[in-house]
């Protein structure tokens, strides 16, 4: 029975020990040299309130040894011991075991507790003491590594977060031990020949402890070895004076002896420098070879010079961001090799594999081991914990002029442990992600890389292919630069294809025809642009990858948050978050005005990923974004011209809402910003067979196109609308209206035969359909076109027919337009009285109904009539009033016309300066609008005015 009982006790004890070390062999770390904390397998443990933390600390300082319960209670509570102190202690121990999830082996024995762990591996204080003791038993050369590692364990004031008499006593004692270890390390480094490297550190230490003669001696010796003997002697005088003033004594014998040896320039004070371990200090030169084909990037190199040169007191970091293949590593290496002489103590380089097809991102521990190896640290002296390794690394590079290049970083966590703590070091970080916390918390200067400008892209091709070949095929080179969009990797792949002798024109034709497929490579992912870009997607969520793909097929060269929300069907907040993630990954660029854009090749790659989405998902997204743009354009059109007939498209897809626009100015601004996207939307709608969307977009954009003189856009939009109308035979109005607007657009561009054919067809269809409104509108357009072609009589005939139709329809606004058109034609025919009456009647109707654009048009006509009647001052009044209204409306097309008209009465009144100023503004507008014939005519009027002024002066 006793044997069985003994076996059970042994079994329980063994199980207790087993589970105390962790059921799964979990690694426990306990921190006392800083804020009291603990981790299990790298995960933080919630230690509970301050007393409970103190219980852990009281056990940990004697890890592996039995601590009597009474002593534990005294350590934790002191004079404030609770009435049931032991029970409370037991309760805290139980809660600690639970917090550690079975990984804390606290064993209760006889009258106390023991923390049964490998003390040196588990408790930082015990490891500190063991390393310090090991150093004291070693030779000088063998002391540096353990002392450095020991001091690296300190993370602030010891036992932070707990209080009490015992804590205060222990805290003071350990601080003294740390102070002694710092002294010991400094003495060892000085005996090994260091000096200049220690000056900054010892300067701060001497300021904190001005009466400590040991520190004073160390500082004096370091200054002397740094070539600052005068400063060393001056510091001795300061210490001597301070000792006399504060303590009434002289420096001790050791400090006086050092002072005399410095005065005597004792050569024994400056032994040759050696590295830890007694060897010559290694100078790592790890930079890869400079990029052979590097070209351009002068502005970026200058920005690196500015960011990384001439400052002190902080670690200088430049995070070079950009998409895969944009040239980040090349730029970093070019700068590093150009400035290698600035870093005589060495250059460290590591590829962190942040974006790699076959490897996971490198752990910072692996990169750190490589750096410590390069700095000559014996593997047996490298501490196991990353924090201690980082501290050792910072100690080794302190005050050394070194460059550290951290290439291809994926996360800030990879980078931070590898940052030195010395202002003498420079760090270059490259990565596709922006690493915002590196910027926010560590002051990194971010440098975003874009595509190469045209000249630098040509220079890259010339470097790869030879200047003669590039000069021989300039047109093909221009095509290649355009098709590659200045993307360095794409240019390099193209050059690799062409270097075999394939004519550049053939390479360009293949790239234009096959696109991204020509930049792919089956066997070498690093030589394939699609593969390189694909690596950027690995860290994205499924939702972010979907947004990326949909942006690749969305119409337009750029986009906005509201459009992306419609495209993806995501709420604005989630859409913004996805865009931010793509921007962080350098797959998207945020531009001024809240717009987002992709490089053309990135966009092409995104489109290939969109085809992995289900067809219905992709099509539904396109429908939503088309409806968003269409209905916003319709709302904008209503603000620009409220009197225009309301032709509403079908309702938008569920959940799609037009972008809110406050007024006509906001509508014009939105249309200007979205102009390329709206035309692209129309093309995309045609490809998707959404013919009504195509037609209604042409209608919604018509006023904007006319006012802004976007004549080529107008003709393209209405051609698409006419094609769409042929697919909608159930609505003949759509076809006749498209012919009418297309005819007018053709006439504006001087396509007379095409314009006549479309207008004739529009009128014929309107008559066939017995559509009086369309007949009237077409006659009015024919009025403008016929008058522009110089046939004022035919124009007047069309104007009167339009007027008859409008009067029968009872629409005063349209009637006013027809009256003004008839008046204009009468003026052209010389019948000024009739013209004045017709335009006067038109103006009365337009003012009564507050039709601002109609007023402007009629006032312009009245200005012409007054000018031709010789009443030039009245003409000025009419023209200026018309001009003010056109400017208010933002009608740039008519502003240019009225400015030209306004110059004539100024000239007739001898107001040459006003005429010249007015015509000069008109000339600039005509040129901006691509109206070459109008510009040439005004240029002739200005020349005649100048000649007239010159003649008058003679």
The total tally of domains equals 7
CATH topology of the largest domain: Serine Threonine Protein Phosphatase 5, Tetratricopeptide repeat
Q: Could you say which overall geometry the principal axes of the C-alpha atoms support? A: elongated
Strand order within the widest sheet?
A: 8-9-10-7-11
Count up the helices: 43
| Known CATH architecture of the largest domain | Alpha Horseshoe
Number of strands: 14
Give the helix level as a range of percent: 55-70%
Q: Give start-end ranges of low-pLDDT stretches.
A: 1-24, 272-279
CATH class of the largest domain: Mainly Alpha
Rg, please? 42 Å
Helix-strand makeup class: mainly alpha
Per DSSP, what share of the residues sits in E-state strands of 2 or more residues? 5-15%
Biggest sheet layout: 5 strands, parallel
Mean of pLDDT: 86
Find the CATH superfamily of the largest domain: Tetratricopeptide repeat domain
Distance between the termini: 140 Å
Can I get a quick summary?
This protein has 954 residues and is mainly α. The chain is 63% helix and 6% strand.
């Amino acid at each position: 029975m006793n044997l069985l009982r003994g076996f059970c006790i042994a079994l329980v004890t063994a199980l207790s020990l087993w589970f105390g070390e962790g059921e799964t062999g979990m690694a426990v770390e306990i921190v006392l040299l800083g804020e009291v904390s603990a981790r299990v397998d790298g995960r933080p443990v919630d230690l509970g309130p301050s007393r409970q933390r103190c219980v852990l600390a009281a056990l940990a300082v004697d890890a592996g040894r039995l601590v009597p319960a009474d002593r534990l209670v005294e350590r934790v509570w002191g004079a404030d011991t609770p009435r049931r102190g032991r029970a409370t202690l037991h309760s805290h121990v139980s809660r600690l075991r639970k917090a550690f999830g079975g990984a804390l082996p606290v064993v209760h024995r006889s009258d106390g507790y023991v923390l049964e762990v490998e003390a040196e591996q588990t408790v930082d204080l015990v490891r500190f003491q063991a390393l310090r003791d090991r150093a004291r038993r070693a030779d000088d050369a063998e002391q540096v590594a353990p002392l450095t590692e020991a001091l690296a364990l300190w993370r602030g004031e010891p036992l932070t977060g707990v209080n009490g008499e015992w804590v205060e006593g222990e805290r003071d004692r350990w601080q003294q031990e740390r102070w002694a270890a710092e002294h010991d390390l400094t003495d060892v480094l000085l005996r090994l020949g260091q000096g200049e490297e220690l000056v900054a550190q010892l300067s701060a230490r001497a300021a904190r402890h001005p009466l400590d003669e040991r520190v004073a001696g160390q500082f004096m010796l370091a200054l002397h070895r740094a070539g600052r003997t005068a400063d060393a002697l001056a510091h001795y005088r300061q210490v001597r004076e301070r000792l006399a003033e504060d303590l009434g004594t002289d420096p001790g014998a050791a400090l006086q002896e050092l002072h005399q040896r410095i005065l005597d320039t004792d050569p024994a004070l400056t032994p040759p420098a050696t590295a830890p371990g007694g060897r010559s200090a290694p100078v790592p030169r790890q930079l890869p070879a400079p990029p052979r084909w590097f070209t351009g990037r002068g502005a970026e190199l200058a920005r690196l010079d500015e960011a990384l040169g001439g400052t002190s007191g902080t670690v200088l970091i430049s995070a070079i961001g950009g998409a895969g293949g944009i040239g980040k590593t090349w730029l970093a290496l070019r700068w590093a090799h150009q400035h290698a002489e600035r870093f005589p103590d060495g250059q460290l380089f590591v590829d962190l594999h942040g974006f790699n097809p076959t490897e996971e991102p490198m752990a910072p521990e692996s990169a750190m081991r490589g750096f410590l190896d390069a700095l000559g640290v014996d593997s047996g002296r490298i501490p196991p914990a990353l924090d201690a390794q980082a501290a050792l690394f910072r100690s080794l590079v302190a005050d050394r002029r070194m460059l550290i290049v951290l290439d291809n970083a994926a996360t800030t966590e990879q980078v931070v442990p590898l940052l030195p703590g010395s202002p003498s070091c420079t760090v270059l970080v490259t990565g596709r992600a922006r690493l915002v916390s590196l910027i926010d918390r560590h002051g990194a200067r971010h440098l975003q890389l874009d595509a190469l400008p045209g000249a630098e892209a040509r220079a890259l091709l010339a470097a790869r292919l030879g200047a003669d070949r590039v000069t021989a095929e300039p047109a093909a080179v221009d095509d290649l630069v355009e098709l590659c969009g200045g993307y360095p990797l794409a240019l390099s792949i193209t050059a690799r294809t062409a270097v075999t002798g394939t004519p550049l024109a053939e390479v360009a034709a293949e790239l234009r025809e096959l696109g991204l497929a020509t930049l792919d490579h089956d066997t070498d992912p690093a030589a394939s642009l699609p593969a390189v870009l694909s690596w950027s997607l690995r860290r994205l969520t499924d939702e972010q990858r979907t947004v990326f793909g949909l942006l690749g097929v969305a119409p337009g060269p750029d986009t906005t948050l509201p459009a992306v929300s419609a495209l993806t069907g995501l709420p604005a907040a989630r859409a913004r978050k996805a865009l931010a993630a793509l921007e962080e990954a350098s797959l998207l660029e945020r531009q001024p005005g809240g717009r987002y854009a992709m490089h053309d090749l990135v966009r092409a790659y995104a489109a290939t990923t969109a085809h992995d989405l289900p067809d219905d998902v992709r099509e539904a997204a396109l429908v939503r974004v088309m409806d968003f743009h269409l209905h916003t354009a319709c709302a904008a059109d209503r603000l620009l011209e409220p009197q225009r007939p309301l032709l509403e498209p079908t309702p938008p897809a569920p959940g799609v809402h037009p972008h809110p626009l406050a007024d006509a100015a906001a509508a014009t601004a939105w249309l200007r910003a979205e102009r390329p996207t709206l035309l692209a939307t129309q093309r995309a709608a045609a490809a998707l067979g959404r013919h009504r969307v195509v037609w209604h977009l042409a209608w919604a954009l018509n006023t904007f196109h006319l006012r802004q003189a976007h004549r080529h856009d107008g003709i393209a939009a209405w051609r698409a609308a006419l094609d769409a109308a042929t697919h909608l035979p159930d609505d003949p109005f759509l076809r006749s209206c498209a012919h009418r607007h297309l005819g007018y657009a053709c006439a504006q561009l001087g396509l007379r035969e095409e314009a006549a054919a479309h207008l004739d067809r529009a009128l014929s269809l309107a008559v066939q359909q017995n559509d009086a409104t369309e007949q009237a509108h077409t006659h009015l357009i024919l009025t403008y076109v016929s008058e522009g072609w110089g046939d004022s009589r035919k124009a007047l005939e069309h104007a009167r027919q339009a007027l008859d139709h409008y009067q029968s329809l009872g629409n005063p606004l349209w009637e006013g337009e027809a009256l003004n058109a008839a008046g204009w034609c009468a003026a052209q025919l010389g019948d000024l009285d009739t013209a004045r009456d017709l335009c006067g009647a038109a103006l009365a109707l337009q003012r009564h109904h507050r039709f601002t654009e109609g007023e402007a048009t009629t006032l312009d006509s009245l200005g012409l009539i007054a000018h031709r009647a010789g009443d030039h001052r009245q003409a000025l009044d009419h023209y200026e009033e018309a001009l003010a209204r056109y400017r208010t409306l933002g009608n740039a097309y008519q502003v240019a016309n009225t400015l030209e008209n306004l110059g004539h009465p100024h000239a007739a009144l001898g107001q040459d300066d006003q005429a010249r100023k007015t015509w000069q503004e008109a000339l600039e507008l005509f040129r901006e609008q691509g109206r070459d014939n109008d510009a040439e005519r005004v240029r002739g009027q200005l020349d005649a005015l100048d000649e007239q002024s010159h003649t008058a002066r003679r």
